Amino acid sequence: MDNYRMIAKTLYGFESILAKELLDLGAMDIKEGNRMVSFVGDLGFMYKANLCLRTAIKILKPYESFRVNSEQELYDNIKKLPWEKFLAEDGSLAIDSAVHSDIFTHSQYVALKSKDAIVDRFREKFGKRPDVDLDFPDLRINIHIEKNFCNVSFDSSGDSLHKRGYRSATNIAPINEVLAAGMLLMSGWEGQCDFLDPMCGSGTIPIEAAMIACNIPPNLNRKEFAFEKWNDWDEELFEKIEESALKKVKDFHFKIKGYDKAPSAVMKAKENVKNANLSEFIEIEQKSFFETKKQNDKYLHMLFNPPYGERLEIDIEDFYGKIGDTLKQGYPGTHAWFIATNFDAIKSVGLRASRKIKLYNGPLEGRLLKYVLYQGSKKRSKQQD
């Protein structure tokens, strides 16, 4: 099987985590970029990347690159490509585009111009043209223009890979699954101890934590990938890749818990845990974090996404002060990580973060913060470490 270069797109700050994931999966010639990592693999590896990568949003297969200095040049270059090799005249297509250019300033216009070029080619050659289907087209095309350089790729994933397929119910401000998985990996979570998300919402972080702990492929529950409509779709090969990945699933001997004070969130989280087939590993309870304490003296790994006042009305100063107090008084022997997008809120915690990592939660710049809560005195804990 031929090897070729591919691109895995990711969120800001996760490039090195994704590069390590690719290395562990067996990718070759890995190169980190801005919100992306390029790598070399074959068709089977493309299937494996879509199924197994936790921090990838899309897997793109580059097709053609060229310089463009005008709209007409873009149209002409797209039109001359032999699209009939990949798409039937009665098929369907969708085009996603991203532009960082002085010549092209509107990504939707680039997508429209590219679509016109492709359908005009079909109309002239066959008297028929493919339809546009934004949901599940036969071919999803990605156009990326950087200054005056255009990259045309095939999108092998379809829907963003953060849509794992287990989340049927969400709360007001759900966290992106790729963001959740990336933060867990960044925090060093491997399933080595008990885990707690004390503000779990619809359960995304506990579910991603369980999948990491058990080495379950994150996109096992997805209904479909874009490559299933490609001309070279090899169902037998995909089933072998899936079977091989499932053989690497491991057991988990600790507890993963999620708390939320809202009954509706608890109900949604339980439903999502059930959808992910992880009920034996995850326990969801209706509790206010501020009224809880650590339940034993074993080391605890904690990671959560507290409200940040954008969509949920809270008194930021008071709320984050209570987070600090609860951690300090009730959770000795814990490494607590959380993401905050309100920088004033961070000051209200009243604890010194041992790490601050820049990330984005959607469009909002934030920090992933680590707080080490020692068992007994700091000095004695360091001696025991």
Automatic annotation (TrEMBL):
Species of provenance: Christiangramia sediminicola
InterPro entries xref list: DNA_methylase_N6_adenine_CS, RlmKL-like_Mtase, RlmKL-like_Mtase_CS, RlmL_1st, SAM-dependent_MTases_sf, THUMP_dom
PANTHER family attached to this UniProt entry: RIBOSOMAL RNA LARGE SUBUNIT METHYLTRANSFERASE K/L, RIBOSOMAL RNA LARGE SUBUNIT METHYLTRANSFERASE K_L
Keyword tags: Methyltransferase, RNA-binding, Transferase
Protein name: THUMP domain-containing protein
Keyword Ribosomal protein in record: no
Domain THUMP per the UniProt entry, residue ranges: 45-156
PROSITE patterns membership: N6_MTASE, THUMP, UPF0020
